[in-house]
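Quick one: structure for this chain?
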Amino acid sequence: MKKQIIFLVLLFVQAVSYAQPRFDSSLFKPAKPRTSGPVEVVYNAKDKDLEFSDAINAACFLFEDFSWRQISLPMQKNAAGLWTVILPVKSTTAFIAVKFYQGDFDHPDVTDNNQDRGYAVALSDAKGKAVPGAYLGEAAFQQPEIAGGGIFSYYNTQPAAMPADYMKSLADKEFALSGKQHLRYFQSFMNLQKLALGDAFPAYAQKLITQQLQRKDLSDEVLGQLYSFASSRLKDTEVIQLIEKRVNTDYPSGATARFIAYSNTMSGNPSNAEIITSYEKFLQRFPVQQWRQRPNAQGFIYYAIYRGLGSAYFETKQLDKFAKLYDDLDFRTGNELMRWNIMRAYMFKMVGKDSLYQVSEAILPKMIARRGDNSYKDDFDRQAQADSNVVKNLDDRLFTHISLLNDLKKYAEARKYFLLLSEDGKYSNADLNEINLQVLEGLNDEKQILPLLEMSARYNAMTPRMFDKLKSIYLKGHPNDESGYQAYLAGLKSDEQKAAMQAYVDHNWVNHPMPDFRLETAEGLFITPEDWKDKIVVVDFWATWCRPCIMAFPGMQLLVDKYAQDKEVAIYMLGTMQTGNYKDKSVNYVRGEGFRFNLLHDSVNPKTNEQDLLFKQLVPLFGDSSIPRKIIVKNGRVRYCSGGYSGSPSKLMDELSLAIEILKNEK
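Got it. Here's what it folds into:
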């Protein structure tokens, strides 16, 4: 009997301890802080990870107006060796949590958050009464999913769940304290109630929302909260319909009605005809101009609506309607529509070039006119990032249009748009540089060709034909004396480009054993490691299905031509991870495009029957199985490894040439 009593007492003590907050409040002065005065934080770092720090900061998380705000303050060390900071509070500050750290907040050297239990305290008002939000803040601090916000960054790991009875007591206290205004923090309050009530929550939520809908003074914002919760969390059709009816009666043109109408357009898997009908009706009821007069956080709705409608118009060849949309589009939305439709149609030849030109020419001036509308500002932390993004995207859209104009031999128009490119955009893309060369040749503008070629060389964005053209111009000016050509060419490259290339190559050095191999050539012969003895061997892993691999071919041809007479260097294009008759595919493609490569075929793995035996053995070195992938082999070891393609043939040639020459000069 005595043992049973002791056991029950222990259970009771345990239950009581579980029903207590896990955070430490002893660091705050006064012990029961009020909003009527500042709150002092006093931190003793002795025996903690920050004990020997000479600079400690306090990351303060304040629950105010039912949401989290975070600030960081430097602390001062007093004569007693304690670290202190005064934290100013507002009348609405209901709860405070503090984490201590050294260094940068985002990447601190050391932190102390009481081993994820927390340092925190609730506040009272000037009369000693709890501030509205105090109990919700206490709950949300220990279960961040309740109110979200920046409080997630307080913890190192996801906090363990608190007992339901404890959470229920906080919910009850908060409702008693601020129940009359609980619609101000409805989502957080309902998250707390869900944790507290468990399986009983749906019935509670249905009853509470139904009761609220009886009130006559509900604002559009409050109805929006009710709808959002009912549709995304409660998913009760009856309750959703009740809210929709109230919204359409009281605020038929409001933000909540707009969101409901948008949500209803997104259901199912509609056809293009259904998308067009649905989205056109939406825009008739909720014109974008109306939203722009009183903008809120619903800009995403118009972005999605116009993207969907524009793509549906384009796919159904209603190109006039597609172009007409640009009367209403901001730069961000118009850019995405042009990228997804115009650029894709040009690349994959989905629309005739004459028709594509008509629509592209109609919309591009509108894009240019709206490049300063700041429509990307919410996508970036800093204005400079948003501005840079606009420049890059406009350059990309101009690239597509200039390419189209060049194909149609509309050289004067193409040159006009070329001059609208940013300074980097004019010369940093090798493919665009070659197009501009063709445009200048089409215009017979010989005076501009040499400056274009020299600037392209400075940006290290040259194609094989551009090198040929530059060399011919040089020889014409130096009566067929090419002795100084290489020095002239090297002098065109900027010091910044040279330094960046050296840093890139230095980053890609490796020292990895080359697996044994037996690889078949295009002629049906075989090579083994013995054939590479005393050579520096460049291997380009590629496949016919890999577009970046194919795009890198001109750069690899430049490299092959450069080392064609060098007996110390061998260059191979090794097809891998292909299917079907991969040998004929590779050979026919390369020869059909006029490239002069030494071709190899990767061996078939007998265990998987996949054509990737050598490549897969090198994946531990690569870190992934993506291609294109270049390696350089010397004395049976892989010494250099780089992946991807920058888009510049000359840059690829320079990269591999630099690595080759460094390896050649090794002792």
